[in-house]
Fold these 4 entries.
Entry 1:
Amino acid sequence: MTTLYACLGSGNCMKPWLAMRQLDQTFELTLIDVLKGEQKSPDYLAINPLGVVPFLVTDTGMGIGESNAMLWYLADGSPLMPQDASGRAEALQWMFFEQSKLEPFISPARFFTTILPDQRGARADDIAAWQAAARPGLARLNAHLSDRTFMLAQGYTIADIAIFGYVHVMEEAGLALTDYPAISAWIDAVANTPDFRPLSALGQSRARAA
């Protein structure tokens, strides 16, 4: 059975988990407590030598790192995969954008603002820099979404899931969602897709009894 190694509260871990939930794919979920350093334990390093999460082990035993690569693999042949070459290229464009212009800034700002708030003061300058670096990407995303419901014209796809992971928790990074009304409307649209599950439900598997 496919196994997803993930940690609670992670936008990157949410991506493959949500895709499998919405595609009704059977999988097991193994939680790794990164705050306790479990990702560097010998047992986990034997599974993923890079010592990071998320990590997907397919039912054939292949290991896949990088959340957006997992989405591409999981969505192959499904309605979540863009229908033609141009749509797939556009999806990849936005997935690369997410990992270069959004996630590297929203994620650490959120980490030291909300997940480890006791370090917020010591990292105040870093948080401010990450927030400033995130705003141009968020402005571009907001402009893109100003005349559409989802990222691609064809509708809801893995491009939406990829970007949703961290953008929907931007306020936990100290970024005002009210500054981006089109993003806010898009977040609501994604949250209303069939079989959507919120980040707070990440601990749920979809393993079935034999």
Entry 2:
Amino acid sequence: MKRKYKVVIAYDGTAYSGWQYQENAVGIQQVVEEVLAYLEGAPVRIFGSSRTDAGVHAKGFVGHFHLTKPIPPKNLVRAMNSRLPEAVRILKAAYAKEDFDARLSAKGKEYRYQLYQAEILPPHLVPYWTFCHRPLDLRAMRQAAAYFVGKHDFVSFAANPNRDLDSTVRTIFSFEVKKTGPKYTFIVRGDGFLYKQVRSMVGFLISVGKGNEKPEAVRELLEAKTPRTARVETAPGRGLFLWKVFYGKSGSEALRRKT
């Protein structure tokens, strides 16, 4: 008898090509599926809550899959982690209802982007923090971030995914910029995100922080609804974390609460 499982995965994406399976590179999906295949004794496909790019990390990625072997969730966590590389961890596992889908059932996601502003970036932070030596205007970045909140067409802040999209309209519930010493954290929650949308939005906020753009430029680009140009830079992947995926009624409510 097949059982559906839901797992929460954390990973350091530094050495990987992203989540999605790729023929010419190693993705997180491939690594996880190899372990599941070992446990099941047959190929297993895991379906993820989203795609992440090369070098991007996750603290709360969600996936679902089926197993015929009757492995209790707690035992599954231990069994998978004993065989996964240290950069990939299963944090939680649970049985899931048959109508649960890691991607389609999600009400929204939270991403966090980490930026270190100083003369020198400490070496141990290199894989997880983007570096900026120029001073940044925190107030201006917060003003600019506020323009992203709401339902908008984000075509100007997304890259071409090379696949058909039903719509480029998304809703951002909140976008905060927090600062602790030299560390800036960009925290964004939305009902969904386009390809490289978060990195594009953060990249533009950094341009605002440097004084290269005005905060009001965000509104202008959103209203223009034209494909992204070189004016909107993509922030490096290494500072980005998929922080959490929200499900159900409680997830919808949590999405709208302040972090």
Entry 3:
Amino acid sequence: MRVLLIEDDNALGALLRRRLGGESMVVDWVRRLEDARGACREFAYDVVILDRGLPDGDGLDLVGTLRASAGKPRILVLTARGATRERISGLDAGADDYLGKPFDPDELAARCRALGRRPAILPEETIIIANISLNQSLRSVSVAGTKLTLPRRELLILECLIRNKGRVVPRERLLEQVYGFDDEIESNGLETNISRLRKTLRVAGGQVEIRVVRGIGYFIRATPAGSAR
């Protein structure tokens, strides 16, 4: 899940980025409406966390842009303006959820997970390819019924490939799914993660293979039992 966090408080922004990153979410953090508009032109987001009191305006002014952007993200308004009339105005403006400050970061993470599970974003609860299943609500992967624990980036890669099974996923799209725009992308970092993922799936008995289409991207497909690589 890719999240755009629009928050001008440095301490809070850093806290939320760490907390949501611990949920295997890719979090892009900006502090101004202008930067948020630029991010939405470049990337498709699943969830946007939107502060209202920003240096260059009211965050609600961005709702129309978000609704028209790629991916049609769910919008969670996060603000100190927590009075009932403020919540109503935020929801009427097009927000999907509204959380007043102060708040519990664990509750915010739970609300993001809930927004990400809504049918408009995740139409299938579980996606299966060969003997591998991806539960999109729990964000868990199992091989032949046994849960598979993966490092964060390898999980994000596998999720993206499984959700696009039968199609080649461009390398650039995988990078967008795995790295935030503030993350340092190591040389051949994506290829290294995919190599480790292949090995983990092979050891676990996964009957799939991840193939490369040189110059374009990667795809996942089922293989006969015992021949996954």
Entry 4:
Amino acid sequence: MKFICDYFSLMLKSNDRFEVIGTANDHDGVMALAKEKNPDVILLDLNFDKNNTGIDMISELKKLKPQCKIIIITVHDQGNLILEAITNGADNYLLKDMPVEELQSAIIDTYENKTGFSQRLLYNIASEANKIQQRQQSLLYIMTKLSTLSPREYEVLQQLYLNKSYAEISDFLVIEKVTVRSYVSSVLKKMGYTSSKAMVKDLTDLKIFENLSGLKNINGITDITDG
């Protein structure tokens, strides 16, 4: 971490618009410097120390120094990290492999409230936002389908979600195995699937029962159609 701090210190000092007032290698050091030196801008590495990430520290620094510009600087360009940083209050998100002049200009623009993301980051942000929208739409679709199930069908679906066999479901719900098969067939039809394996995979990917808190009451199922 120290050599990274040294590199960026030298890079910034090469431009007379910057004054480097301190560097730190861990959470406590950053907080102490922010409190003591009152910086205008803080460059925060995404991979900070073993106990903290740069993203974790943004809100804490903003609470301490609301007017200070917080810039995440990293090699990671994933859309989910960028959105998380922005959500937590970061004023900009820059990549370490940017040319020095561009990096310096981006820091100055951020300080002057003229923040702009590179095309590369904008693409990744848009891609991540699209994934989130698709997940939300899928979740709404599945929940709408779930509302068509009877209480018993919902119980059977929950047991399938827990990877229970037909025999185990039969024992748990105290119904005949042939009855379980009938319920599964009805559930598949209402949910729009031909395979219980594919259905369970989609439900697992969406963490559907965790979102509905269904698994917390697995032995005392509540009819979701009751609202």
